[in-house]
């Protein structure tokens, strides 16, 4: 899979290393070294993927991700030296699709890139038809979630969670199963990530988030989506 990638990394040596590995896999790469130029490049080129360092000068990577999510569904893979769970969950909550913590091996990064591109590539399968569960409508082609006719803004992670649950209504998914669907295996990301997505989604789709009737908790197991 060949893709156009915007790489935002202020460390020139690190950026050059990552660029070479991306180009070896036949991706085209635009390299920028600060947050403001990253935003300009993404808006201009509409890439297939953004590889985004958190510690960028000017506008940092978290703010870049926050702004991009208002404008685009472009997949974002963040590079960070911050490895605490709270830091990682903050980035995911802002809409990042995956994280790689520094130091990392270029081979690991390329594997993450391949996985993310496969996961976010348009698919032409029956499963990509509009999903309906009660008053909820999930349209993968438009990447659009609506509740009782109103479009609901959501992050890519929240959307994939809803699409996974809606594909099999009333099926109970464990947190580990949902995490694998959203982010693959990452020792720095925990099942608490799913709880954060669920909490945010309930604020958006439930009449009373404290007493959910759609996105239900099955205690001791996980979550399910119902037509309540």
Automatic annotation (TrEMBL):
Span of domain OmpR/PhoB-type: 128-227
GO molecular function: phosphorelay response regulator activity; transcription cis-regulatory region binding
Transmembrane segments: none
InterPro entries, A to Z: CheY-like_superfamily, OmpR/PhoB-type_DNA-bd, Sig_transdc_resp-reg_C-effctor, Sig_transdc_resp-reg_receiver, WalR-like, WH-like_DNA-bd_sf
PROSITE patterns: OMPR_PHOB (PS51755), RESPONSE_REGULATORY (PS50110)
GO cellular component: cytosol; protein-DNA complex
Pfam families, A to Z: Response_reg, Trans_reg_C
Keyword Heme: no
GO aspect biological process, one term: regulation of DNA-templated transcription
Residues bearing the modification 4-aspartylphosphate: 53
Domain (Response regulatory) ranges: 4-117
Keywords carried by this UniProt record: DNA-binding, Phosphoprotein, Transcription, Transcription regulation, Two-component regulatory system
Positions of the DNA-binding region: 128-227
The name this protein goes by in its record: DNA-binding response regulator, OmpR family, contains REC and winged-helix (WHTH) domain
């Amino acid at each position: 899979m060949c893709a156009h990638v915007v790489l935002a990394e202020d460390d020139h040596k690190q950026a050059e290393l990552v660029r070479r590995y991306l180009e070896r896999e036949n991706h085209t790469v635009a390299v920028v070294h600060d947050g403001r130029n990253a935003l300009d490049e993404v808006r201009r080129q509409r890439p297939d993927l953004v590889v985004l360092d958190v510690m960028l000068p000017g506008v940092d990577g978290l703010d870049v991700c926050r702004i991009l999510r208002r404008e685009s569904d472009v997949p974002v893979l963040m590079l960070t030296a911050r490895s605490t769970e709270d830091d990682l969950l903050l980035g995911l909550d802002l809409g990042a699709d995956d994280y790689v913590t520094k130091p990392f091996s270029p081979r690991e990064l390329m594997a993450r890139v391949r996985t993310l591109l496969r996961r976010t590539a348009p698919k032409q399968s029956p499963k990509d038809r509009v999903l309906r569960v009660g008053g909820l409508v999930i349209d993968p082609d438009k990447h659009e979630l609506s509740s009782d006719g109103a479009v609901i803004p959501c992050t890519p992670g929240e959307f994939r969670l809803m699409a996974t649950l809606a594909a099999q209504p009333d099926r109970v998914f464990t947190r580990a199963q949902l995490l694998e669907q959203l982010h693959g295996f990452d020792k720095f990301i925990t099942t608490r990530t799913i709880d954060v997505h669920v909490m945010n989604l309930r604020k958006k789709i439930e009449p009373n988030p404290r007493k959910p009737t759609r996105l239900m908790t099955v205690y001791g197991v996980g979550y399910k989506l119902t037509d309540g």
